Amino acid sequence: MMREWNLDGAAMTDNASSVPMFELRDAGKRYAGQMALAPMDLRIERGRTTALIGSSGSGKSTVLKLLMGLIWPDRGQVCMEGSPLTRRALTAQRRRIGYVIQEGGLFPHLTIAQNLSLQARSVGWAATRIQARVTSLLDLVRLQADVLRRYPAELSGGQRQRVALARALMLDPPALLLDEPLGALDPVVRHDLQDELARIFAELKTTVVLVTHDMAEAAFLASRLVLLEGGRVRQDGSFADLRDRPADAFVSRFVASGRGLPQADA
Amino acid sequence: MRRALHWVLAACLALGLALAASAATAAGAPVRIGSKAFTESIVLGEVARLELKAHSIAATHQRNLGGTRILWKALRRGSIDVYPEYTGTLVQELLPGAPSDASLAQLRARLKRLGLGMSAPLGFSDSYALGMPRKTARQLGIERISQLRAHPQVRYGLSNEFMDREDGWRGLARRYGLPTDHVRSLDHDLAYKALAAGAIDVTDVYTTDAEIPYQHLRVLTDDRHFFPSYRAVFLYRLDWAASHPQALAALNGLGGRIDEAAMQRMNAAVKLDGRSETAVAGDFLGVKAASGEAGFWTRLGRRTLEHLALVASSLGLAIVIALPLGLVAARYRRLGQGVMALTGVLQTVPSLALFVFMIPLFGIGAAPAIAALFLYSLLPIVRNTHVGLTGIDPALLASADALGLPRRVKLWRIDLPLALRSILAGVKVAAVINVGTATLGALIGAGGYGQPILTGIRLDDMGLILQGAIPAAVLALAVQGIFELVERGLVPRGLRPARPRRARGSG
Questions:
Q1: B417 contacts A111? CB cut-off 8 A
Q2: Which residue is closest to B421 within chain A, CA to CA?
Q3: What is the pLDDT of residues A212-240, one digit of tens each?
Q4: Model pTM above 0.80
Q5: Is the dihedral of CA B468, B469, B470, B474 positive or negative?
Q6: Is ipTM strictly over 0.90?
Q7: What is the CATH architecture assignment of B2-23+295-495?
Q8: Quick one: fold of B128-219?
Q9: Chain B contact probe: residue of A67, A95, A109, A117 with most B CBs at under 10 A
Q10: Which residues of A touch B423 (CB under 8 A)?
Q11: Best B392, B399, B499 residue to mutate vs chain A (most A CBs within 10 Å)
Q12: What is the dihedral of CA B447, B450, B456, B458, to 10 degrees?
């Protein structure tokens, strides 16, 4: 299949709303005295896919965890839809975010059906509504209904990630956070799922934040790339920006690591 | 702090207490007699019960209770009303500060300060003495201990305890200037066998041992009055006596009626002829006594129920308390360390000691046994709950948080199910340990499979021991099996050790 590359970020622009989906305001994080994330301002606009890329330890996952409220900044503020994350409002705020991690985070003791419906049941959805939603989500992620009775251990890695994505989308959240969602998959499955994700993101028009160390994956799925290193943003822009106008040698090297990407016209 | 702990425990065990159904102490309720776990004490308990019955006074007999301390505490606490004791034990162990040659009146005065009273002495004294085969004694012309000094070739075989006691061999040898060359220490029962085989000439005996007439032993006269006197009496509480004057009169009526020879015969009838204590006591009193011994299967059924009640109620309580403790320990690390340390310390208390510690709090019977077993069950359950909860993959916990699950839902749908295997394993360990440890409950009157084991040990009857030991082992296996079934039923397929099924399809 020929891939349509989304190189300059022009295809999707910020929607009319001026309030960003997420915003870091001078937010920083240290672990045991080590700087994990230098205090930074970062706006994640609605309706587009933003990739946080960098090598391990660059701070990209820290950003995602801050957005999710799984960790709290030492200084500054994390805002969602204009209001700061607070412990009090966190449960409600998290229900407006879908979250997928590398190994899917599916609960091994629950069937796929139970994994999918857990969140909807906790907010009191009726069984028929849950069932209808599950059916349409299986359709979206292209899984057969027979997976519902099975347990996560009985699925392939790719199937598990599809389930994890469906689970994250259960309440139709306005934002989707993906932390290396394809990191544990073999290259062929990974390639197929990248296509699927691109299709799904386009279909949903939702706000997506994707954490990955894979330049090609970021360039393929996201219109905006935020390249981090050592807890700092090295460059923030479209793939074309990073490729054609790298901020420094590090960015050049990182871009070059995405072999097979379309090269700049000679 | 300790007091607070007591109250907490007491509250926790309300359920166990309800099961234990302690009898009322009011006048008109049956007289509760206790006895220690050796033949003579049980026979005396039966003598008291049958004598009261002959006076139309209802009485129950809680036999085979662990030891002096247990009876003493049970009496003072009001769990029993009467039990047979020895004046020597009062002087040596129970009334610290009493002079070793205290008169009966002096002992009575000291007991009175504790709210206790003492019946008229029954007649015999069951004290230490030295015994020698009659034939040897006649040949050497020995009748008194002082005469042993002239016969240094005499071989002594003494029980371990007697050897080490100041009121035993050490003091005795000093008082009489006895030689210490041919002295060996060995087990009391073996000493009798060694005497019969002619391997030793003298051993320490209790003056009412059944073996004395049976093996034709001569009890040497303690002509320098070294051994303290162990005269048999009944102890009772004064408040009980005030409301039961007829019962007290009946017990005092036994005064002086049992001499050494009579007691030796009764002990021999039980230990050597295998008759029941009830029948022997009935014969002595000249009353017909239904032995009350039910058939084998009835007894087994009753003990099984008693044993199961001990295990089930202590385990149930432990689950109710230990699960939340484990949860708290897993959530708050500091507190968790304290909880684990405390339950760990409980586990190191020797089981018999723990049972005895419970008596001042819960009396005798099922309640203190349940309390002790409860405390023993805490550690495995708390620890495994803690391990199970803290061992959950952090990614799964993050996922649960990310889904915005309320705490309650997270606990019941995620945390506990994921820790379930570990928790169940802890409960299983506690249950199996309890089945074994509950046999000690018989020492404090809780019944169960420990009853025949205790009696079997006392009477050196392997058959009786096995009547308790085999069902206990079977029960332990059954409990283990039941828990494996429960585990199979409760633990979802997704968590069982994976026989990884080939995943169908890909990505």
A1: no
A2: A109
A3: 988 889 989 999 999 998 888 989 989 88
A4: no
A5: positive
A6: no
A7: Orthogonal Bundle (1.10)
A8: D-Maltodextrin-Binding Protein; domain 2 (3.40.190)
A9: A109
A10: none
A11: B399
A12: -80
